[in-house]
Structure formats: C-alpha cells, structure tokens
Design goal:
Blueprint lengths: L1 E5 L6 H10 L3 E6 L11 E4 L5 H8 L6 E4 L5 H11 L6 E4 L13 E2 L11 H20 L3 E5 L3 E2 L14 H7 L3 E5 L5 E2 L2 E2 H9 L11 E3 L6 E2 H11 L5 E5 L1 H7 L4 H8 L4 E2 L2 H6 L9 H13 L9 H15 L2
Parallel strand pairs: 1-2, 1-4, 2-3, 4-5, 5-7, 6-15, 7-12, 8-11, 9-14
Antiparallel strand pairs: 10-13
C-alpha cells in the first residue's frame, strides 16, 4: 500500500508510522520538517499543508491507498483536504477525539453510537464539526472518509491533566515531596492507552475498504481510577504522591484553562466498548498496562534532560489552587 500521513511524528502518530513501516507499507510523511523526529524507512515530503496550493503542486502526481491527517482541527482543514484528495485516495482517515462524545455522559459505557456533544471545549466542538463535514462529503460526494477517535493516548507525554503532558512539572513535584492535585475524589474511572497499542488497531484500518464511512475509537480495556493512575505514575518515578483532592468545578472556577480538559473530558467516569474495532481488526488487543507503559514514558524523559521541562507558572497555579481550596 502507498500511504500518506500528514504529520506522523507526534505522540500518537510516531508509533503508527513505525508499525506501518514494519508492515512494509510504502509510507510518506508530509510535514514542515521542523521536528527532529525521523521515522526510519518512511519517505518525507516537505510542505506546509496549510498552504494548499503549494502542497497540491507537490502531491499532484500521487494517488494514495490511504491518507491520514493527524493535524486537522477545524472544518476549514477538512474542506481543504476534501479539495486536495477527492479522487486522489481510496481512503481518508480523520483523527477526531473521544472528547467529542457527549459531556456530561448519560451512560458510563461509550460506543461509537454515543451522541457527540461537548458544551465545555472548543477543541471538541471543532472536531465534531469536522466529523459532520466529512460525513456530509461521504454521503453527498462519495468522499471515502473513516473517522478515528483516540482517547487519552500517551507515549512521549505524561498523561496527567495538571502539570503533565509535555511538561515534567508533576514528576518534579512528586520527587520533591510537594503536594499535587487530583481532580474530584480520585475514584472516577478512566482509560489511558499507550500509543503502541493504539497503533495495532489503527494500522488494521488503513486500506480497509470496510472501514470507509465508519467511525471508531481505539483504547485499552484497562479501567483505572484516577487515584490508581497517579499512584502508578509516582511508583514509576520512584516516589510517592502527596495528593490533594479538589473538585473539578472548583479547579475550573479559578483556572478556566482547565475547563475543557476537565469538565469537557476527564471529570467523568468513562468506559469504552471496543467491540467495533475488534470486529473490523480481528485480534486487536491492548497489551501494555499503564503501570508498565508509564515506566517507558518516564524512561523517554530520562533519556534527554532537555525534555524535563518544569514550568514555574504551572507550579504557581497548583500552589494557588491548593491554597484557595484549603482557605475556602
């Protein structure tokens, strides 16, 4: 298969890229060439997809078995891609987000037919609008769209909502014995998926004609409480977590930047039903438990001290929230 990834070297996509190369897919990566990450065995097309005219010239002679856009976030991005790839690919895979599912959820168990609605997060509403545009293009024009909704997938990020992700702040605080925040009482259920497990399911959708016109989420079947998640992170860091539990709505009242990621996502218990991806990709199974996967992530940070970014503004925010909560 001849496949184009727009992006392909990020936290989730790099694992998919490496697996595709291992499966002898003829993989091309279109990116601006600003990331140092390279995927051995993949070919690079250097272009900025936001410059549709320039990208169109470079892509003019190509026809693809599949195109995956890892970095489309708005309906305008989708409109551009439909114009670029209509008649040029047998399948177009859009990376949406499981945060697009109904919030607050009416049911804990989420399937692909769960309604899409998120009044808390612009990011999620834009993803929903992208899905709607693609579904219209599929129905009205035969545009061969497949939609994939990752949920909290990690590899080269620390998957914690306050002081984590691309920062090392939360680990630094743990190691120094400083207090950290866990939203809510820490007992709600959540699912975190390692990118290498996500890649197994995703690769099975690439070039899969039966997946055209369908949507999927791809997650682990491991369900953990947030208290367990933080405890596993602390154990992987060789320390303990001094936790302060603060309700999500209290956090968002004083730190509005967390409204989307908490009230629009992680404040609720969610369990994913993965029966659909297992039906389309027989044998799919997530095999990396979070207790082991987070060790791999922290080893990646340890491999280069430059990656261990401690953000003083985040420290100040955490200290402020703890102080306000204790003084309420």
């Amino acid at each position: 298969m001849k496949v184009l990834f727009i992006g392909g070297t990020g936290n989730i996509s790099a694992s998919v890229s490496r697996l595709c190369v291992a499966q002898n897919i003829d993989l091309f990566l279109l990116n601006r060439g600003t990331r140092k990450a390279e995927i051995e065995g993949a070919r690079t097309i250097t272009a900025d997809i936001s410059d549709a005219d320039a990208a169109g010239i470079l892509l003019k002679e190509h026809h693809w078995d599949a195109v995956v856009n890892w970095i489309a976030f708005t309906p305008e991005d989708i409109e551009r891609d439909i114009n670029l790839f209509q008649g040029k690919t047998n399948q177009y895979i859009f990376i949406s987000s499981a945060s697009a599912y109904q919030k607050p959820p009416e049911q804990t168990v989420v399937t692909e037919s769960t309604p899409l609605a998120n009044p808390f997060w612009d990011y999620s509403r834009n993803k929903i609008a992208c899905e709607n545009k693609l579904n219209d293009a599929y129905r009205d024009e035969g545009f061969p769209a497949t939609i994939v909704r990752p949920s909290h997938t990690y590899d080269t990020v620390i998957p914690l909502p306050i002081g984590g992700w691309q920062e090392y702040t939360i680990i630094d605080r743990m190691k120094k014995g400083m207090k950290i925040i866990v939203h809510g009482d820490g007992t709600s259920l959540w699912t975190i998926t390692h990118a290498e497990d996500f890649a197994k399911g995703f690769a099975g959708l690439i070039g899969n004609a039966n997946a055209v016109g369908e949507s999927f989420h791809i997650t682990s079947d491991e369900n953990l409480t947030w208290n367990q998640i933080y405890q596993y992170v602390a154990q992987a860091a060789g320390t303990e977590a001094d936790i302060v539990h603060i309700p999500s709505d209290f956090i968002c009242r004083y730190e509005s930047s967390k409204t989307g990621t908490l009230l629009g996502d992680k404040a609720y218990s969610v369990i994913f039903d993965n029966s659909k991806i297992k039906k389309f990709v027989p044998g799919y199974k997530a095999s990396i438990p979070f207790s082991e996967g987070i060790k791999m992530t922290l080893a990646w940070f340890d491999a280069d001290p430059v990656r261990k970014v401690v953000n003083q503004q985040t420290n100040e925010m955490i200290d402020k929230l703890i102080r306000k909560f204790k003084n309420r």
